[in-house]
Amino acid sequence: MDKAVLIEYCDLKAEIKEIRRMIQATEDRLRKIEEEGAVSDVVSGGMGGEQHFKVTGFPEPRYAKEKALLKSRRQRLKMKEAELLELTNQAEEYIESIPKSEIRIMLRLYYIENLTWTQVAMRMNRLFPKRKKAYTEDGCRMKNKRFFENVRSCSENL
Question: Model-level pTM?
Answer without folding.
Answer: 0.72
